[in-house]
Every structure is written in structure tokens, then in C-alpha cells.
Amino acid sequence: MLMANNQTYGLMPCCRCGIPMAPNDANTCLKCLYYEYDITQGLQRHVTIIHCPECDTYLQPPTTWIKAQPESNELLTFCVKRLKNLNIVRLVHAEFIWT
């Protein structure tokens, strides 16, 4: 027979900013952890992608040109695969953000 665990956990103040939060190993809220640790360290932040406007293709080095529509899954996959050192992290989600 399984018994339900009805334990509740209290809140504690973040050790940096003092906001109430659920306890964790760092005793720090997610916002403060975000500012303290750069999870993208070691990842490439920029990549040059060559686009031919005449035939609407993208250069996949060294000599292959691929067709992909704007905002398509094919273009997103192409862009993500161009990033170096991506194998050191687990990519959970990727999407285009238009600014």
C-alpha cells in the first residue's frame, strides 16, 4: 500500500535579495542564480549565416545551399546546428524571437 506524502515545506528568504522562496541547495532564488551564474559560458553567441536573396537559400558550408522558409523548423534546425560547443549542454527549447 502506498502512502501519500503530505509533508509541506515552508518558505525561506533568498540569501541575496531576501524574497520568500522554496528552499533549494543554493538557498538562492532563480532570479539571483541567473545573475550570478552564466549558463551560456563556453557557447558560441554569434554565427554568420550567408543568405542568397535571389534564390532564397542559405549556405551550409562548405558548398551546399539549402532552401528554408523564414521562421521554418528547417531554418531553425540549420541555425542551431551551426553553433559550436552545443554538445556541452542539453538544448530543451529553441524558437525565433523577432525584435
From TrEMBL:
<dbReference type="GO" id="GO:0005634">
    <property type="term" value="C:nucleus"/>
</dbReference>
<feature type="domain" description="Nmd3 N-terminal">
    <location>
        <begin position="14"/>
        <end position="99"/>
    </location>
</feature>
<comment type="similarity">
    <text>Belongs to the NMD3 family.</text>
</comment>
<protein>
    <recommendedName>
        <fullName>60S ribosomal export protein NMD3</fullName>
    </recommendedName>
</protein>
<keyword id="KW-0653">Protein transport</keyword>
<dbReference type="Pfam" id="PF04981">
    <property type="entry name" value="NMD3"/>
</dbReference>
<dbReference type="GO" id="GO:0005737">
    <property type="term" value="C:cytoplasm"/>
</dbReference>
<dbReference type="GO" id="GO:0000055">
    <property type="term" value="P:ribosomal large subunit export from nucleus"/>
</dbReference>
<comment type="function">
    <text>Acts as an adapter for the XPO1/CRM1-mediated export of the 60S ribosomal subunit.</text>
</comment>
<dbReference type="GO" id="GO:0015031">
    <property type="term" value="P:protein transport"/>
</dbReference>
<dbReference type="GO" id="GO:0043023">
    <property type="term" value="F:ribosomal large subunit binding"/>
</dbReference>
<keyword id="KW-0539">Nucleus</keyword>
<dbReference type="InterPro" id="IPR007064">
    <property type="entry name" value="Nmd3_N"/>
</dbReference>
<keyword id="KW-0963">Cytoplasm</keyword>
<dbReference type="InterPro" id="IPR039768">
    <property type="entry name" value="Nmd3"/>
</dbReference>
<keyword id="KW-0813">Transport</keyword>
